[in-house]
Amino acid sequence: MTTPYETRQGTSPIILGFPHTGTDVPTDIAERLNDNGRILADTDWHIHRLYDGLLDDVTTVRATFHRYVIDANRDPEGGSLYPGQNTTGLVPETDFDGKAIWKDGQAPDAADIAARLRDFHAPYHAALAAEIERVRAIHGVVILYDCHSIRSHIPFLFEGKLPDFNIGTDMGKTCDSAIEQATLTVTQAAQGYDSVLNGRFKGGWTTRHYGRPETGVHAIQMELAQSTHLQTEAPPFAYDAAKADRLRIHLKDILVRIEQIAPGLKR
């Protein structure tokens, strides 16, 4: 079994989290996926590449396993992020279109979920928590910026077209307002893009779990519409370098600005 996470340590007060870019699926689990599931459509395609090199000496923690194995951005207790709305759970039973991903009778049971929590979810979050403590020890403050993407049209999850930049702070609870405002300022000024703060995506479990501004730990989620950096939002989900280069200018601006804010956030 491959290591469930990759960590790159830096000394910046920023940590980039990548819970959904992994595509590793152990053979015994892959054999239980149906043809639709094996497409792995709900990957955050190329997001770690998109952010690579944007900020000097930044720490990154990336899950290498796919979210169909277990979703690293869901509550390990199984609680819903968006009660009353369509979403996918800790171990998804369907894709983002509401279509089954497991062969008949092969959906994970409670024992499977417990094993995957132990082998994948818990190690990833142990690594992320360790980096948060290490960076906070250096600076007295840390900003976790959780990196995500999703197709811009998914009727099962939301109506119409998703904005290009979707900033999530759980209605301002997970980070200082200066971080939220700096991020929004960049996205609103980005020509040719639209953005929303705490719209359909208000931050996943990672953002809500770690974001405790009163302890010096701030967290913010950025959900990007995949139309901003992919050639098409369908297989093979190819990276569009020209689109990505335009987008990276704004992502770098965000990261540089919030890094500059960090020293003023010390308790």
Describe this structure in words.
The protein is an alpha/beta fold. It has one domain (5-264): Aminopeptidase. The chain contains six helices and seven strands, in the order ββααβαββαβαβα. It has helices at 27-30, 47-51, 110-139, 177-189, 205-210, 241-261; strands spanning 5-8, 14-18, 59-63, 142-150, 165-168, 195-197, 217-225. Strands 1-3-2-4-7-5-6 form a seven-stranded mixed sheet, sandwiched between helices. Strand 5, helix 4 and strand 6 form a beta-alpha-beta unit. Helix 4 packs antiparallel against helix 6 (241-261). The longest helix has 30 residues, at 110-139. The termini are far apart. Pfam families: FGase. It is an enzyme of class 3 (hydrolase). GO terms for molecular function: N-formylglutamate deformylase activity. This is N-formylglutamate deformylase. Its EC number is 3.5.1.68.
Strand content: 5-15%
Strand/helix succession: EEHHEHEEHEHEH
Looking at CATH, which topology would you report? Aminopeptidase
Distance between the termini: 41 Å
Number of DSSP-assigned strands: 7
Helix content: 25-40%
List unreliable stretches of 5+ residues: none
Q: Give the CA-based shape.
A: globular
Rg from alpha-carbon coordinates? 18 Å
Strand line-up of the largest beta sheet: 1-3-2-4-7-5-6
The pLDDT mean sits at 95
Domain count: the total is: 1
CATH architecture: 3-Layer(aba) Sandwich
